[in-house]
Design a protein that fits this description.
single chain; alpha/beta; Rossmann fold; eight-stranded mixed beta sheet; 8 strands; globular
Length: about 280
């Protein structure tokens, strides 16, 4: 029964584009790998797959090939920096919603086959609050809401939290301030968000910390490398190190829901539910 080891499934989301979700996902993955965790990073931005681009990798096959039964999940995994592995997105894979029961079962089996070798699964979701995003977030155990100091960022994060809370009963979210110009700015953003959630929703928000605004991020992106790996001494990389230590201390799921195949099962169920199948 070795495949029953719990996997921490974390969705990184934000409700809008431009808050740096992919950067957070990739660098958090690297920082957790540095702590000795076996990390799988799933690019769930099905329309604009960008994890591979950010890291200068080329995906020959994607999740779509796995669903089509043309190869195993192991065959599509990309080897990323620092020992992380990446499940590249399929650009047209909204087809997740139109999977047949056979394909569902195959996808669950595919993840079940690799769950022995995974401690943490990080899901980089798409922008917005569409069905695809909601399915991935609902299926995860932990949700990191990335916000930044832009007027629409708080409104969009709030809209997503409200949707997940009212329609799906989700009540716990972790908040990460990205590109913060000071530690205080991070706390202020969190305060702004809790001010509205406390008033209108029954949710618990927990502040995960702030990643400082850092020019090294832009330089790393130009090199198609993660800032954590390209500039390990940068303010930004050190912040990810501290955040990873917090994340690593989160309790692991103790119930069967903590297995990777259950994550995929929930993902697939919620897609079919959303499409009215």
């Amino acid at each position: 029964m070795s495949s029953k080891h719990p996997v921490q499934v974390i969705a990184v989301t934000g409700g809008k584009g431009g808050v740096g979700k992919t950067n957070v996902s990739v660098n958090l993955a690297l920082a957790l790998a540095d702590l000795g965790r076996r990390v799988l990073l799933m690019d769930a931005d099905l329309g604009l797959a960008n994890v591979d681009v950010l890291l200068g990798l080329t995906a020959k096959r994607t999740l779509e090939d796995v669903i089509a039964g043309e190869c195993d999940l192991r065959d599509v995994l990309l080897q990323g920096p620092g020992g992380i592995r990446i499940v590249p997105a399929a650009s047209g894979a909204q087809s997740m919603v139109q999977l047949s029961p056979m394909q569902h079962a195959g996808l669950i089996q595919a993840f079940s086959d690799i769950s022995d070798n995974v401690d943490v699964l990080i899901i980089d979701t798409a922008a917005g609050i569409g069905d695809g995003v909601v399915s991935f977030v609902r299926a995860a155990q932990e949700v990191i809401m990335v916000v930044c100091d832009e007027p629409t960022s708080i409104t969009d994060a709030y809209a997503l939290i409200k949707l997940l809370n009212r329609d799906y009963g989700m009540s716990r979210f972790r908040v990460l301030a990205n590109m913060a110009h000071s530690p205080q700015e991070g706390h202020n953003l969190f305060a702004k968000l809790t001010k509205v959630t406390d008033r209108f929703l029954d949710v618990a928000l927990q502040y995960l910390g702030a990643v400082p605004y850092d020019e090294s991020v832009r330089k790393a992106v130009q090199k198609q490398r993660a800032v954590y790996e390209a500039f390990p001494r940068s303010k930004c990389a050190l912040a990810f190190k501290a955040i990873a230590q917090k994340v690593d201390a989160w309790p692991l799921p103790a119930n069967p829901r903590g297995h990777l195949e259950f994550f995929v099962e929930r993902l697939v169920q919620s897609s079919t539910a959303d499409s009215g199948v």
